[in-house]
Design a protein that fits this description.
By secondary structure, the chain is α/β, with parallel strands linked by helices. The strands form 4 sheets. Strands 5-4-3-10-9-8-7-6 form an 8-stranded parallel beta sheet. Strands 1-2 form a two-stranded antiparallel sheet. The chain has a two-stranded antiparallel ribbon with strand order 11-12. The chain folds into 2 domains: about 10-55 and about 90-275, Aldolase class I (TIM Barrel, Alpha-Beta Barrel); about 285-350, Type Iii Antifreeze Protein Isoform Hplc 12 (Alpha-Beta Complex). The N and C termini lie far apart (about 70 Å). Helices cover about 30% and strands about 15% of the residues. It is built from 12 helices and 14 strands. The longest helix has 18 residues, at about 255-275. Helix 1 (about 30-45) runs parallel beside helix 4, helix 1 (about 30-45) runs parallel beside helix 10 (about 255-275) and helix 9 runs parallel beside helix 10 (about 255-275).
Length: about 350
């Protein structure tokens, strides 16, 4: 897989800033103006991109009350059917070209998760710059194949995938000549418990699949996102709403604007702190090194006195001889008078005996 991927005007790579995505999902609450307000909040909070979802209840599932279509997996949506849930959560398709234009005017990259073949066609007409494959679609191989054939970058979540599912999805993309794939570590639970996140998978995923990796995070707060960046995530996706109290299908695990901004700020600080592998010292470290330990005369001494643990000590600062010479100097005599605080130097040591 390619290690440098362009999404719009943004480069995604090991040495590029983390690409931060605000996921709107159902948080628009079927209000166009609210959708625009969420995009503005994303921009103000420092997001690089806004992501929506492109489906209708009838393109993502069937209007059926049979047990298979009931939500009973212990989620926040239990007690309804898939079709009824998506009736409240989908983003009207007629909004989407308008939202894309407004987002781009704000300076945001706008893209979407399609959920069937017709939604890919629709998004191609909109000329989105990248596609997102949601966790639950990773095993829809004809769907992934069609996305791969567009030649556009693909961000792929892995929240319900076994290793073999990921391998098959990536192989499908390669077969279509598309190696611009970013894999996101994801835990499909809403909200996701911290103990189920397993962030150590991020560097493993990078090594095993030899690709750019990131994190789709459904935990509360920003700690997991920051830790993910420290472990190598180059893309971070989090849900954003205006206020959780406003409700909606995804509100319970979404960030509010102030929280999202705090997360972005932490990510940018963490990027600086992660830095690079180096054993060199910065100019400030070199200056601080002046206060490291070295050998000093610790009591007033007369010429001919013998160095002992009482009058020769390793102390701060670093003006004297290196501490590695301490044992060698014990028992030697001093060549001249020296007062307490004199840094040790070789001319103070009598080697004639």
């Amino acid at each position: 897989m390619n290690k440098e991927i362009m999404i719009g005007n943004r480069r995604i790579s090991e040495d590029a800033p983390t690409f931060v995505i605000a996921e709107m999902s159902a948080n628009h609450l079927m209000d166009f103006d609210r959708a625009v307000a969420i995009m503005q909040a994303a921009k103000d909070a420092g997001a690089d991109a806004i992501k929506i979802q492109t489906y209708t209840p009838d393109t993502i599932t069937l209007d059926c009350d049979d047990p298979c279509f009931q939500i009973t997996q212990g989620t926040i949506w239990d007690g309804t059917t898939l079709h009824k849930l998506y009736e409240t959560a989908y983003t009207p398709w007629e909004w989407q070209p308008k939202l894309k234009k407004i987002a781009e005017e704000m300076g945001l990259i706008f893209f979407s998760s399609p959920f069937d073949l017709t939604s890919i066609d629709f998004l191609e007409e909109m000329d989105v710059p990248v596609y997102k494959v949601a966790s639950f679609e990773i095993n829809d191989i004809p769907f992934i194949r069609k996305i791969a054939r567009t030649g556009k970058p693909i961000i792929m979540s892995t929240g319900i995938a076994y290793l073999a599912d990921i391998e098959l999805a990536l192989r499908t993309c390669k077969e279509e000549g598309n190696e611009n794939v970013i894999l996101l570590k994801c835990t499909s639970a809403y909200p996701a418990p911290y103990e189920d996140i397993n962030l150590k998978t991020i560097p493993s995923m990078k090594e095993v699949f030899d690709c750019v990796v990131g994190l789709s995070d459904h935990t509360m707060g920003c700690a997991v996102a920051g830790a993910g960046v420290a472990l190598g995530a180059k893309v971070v996706e989090k849900h954003l709403t205006l206020r959780r109290a406003d409700g909606g299908a995804d509100a319970a695990f979404s960030m509010e604007p102030e929280e999202f901004k705090e997360m972005v700020d932490h990510i940018r600080m963490i990027e600086k702190a992660v830095g690079k592998v180096t054993y060199d010292l910065t100019p400030k470290q070199k200056k601080s090194r002046e206060h490291s330990r070295s050998l000093f005369v610790a009591k007033d001494m007369k010429a001919g006195d013998v160095f002992t643990p009482e009058n020769l000590r390793s102390v701060r600062p670093s003006c004297g001889l290196h501490t590695k010479y301490y044992e060698e100097l014990l028992g030697k005599r001093i060549t001249r008078d020296a007062k307490l605080g004199t840094p040790m130097s070789w001319d103070l040591v009598d080697f004639s005996e």
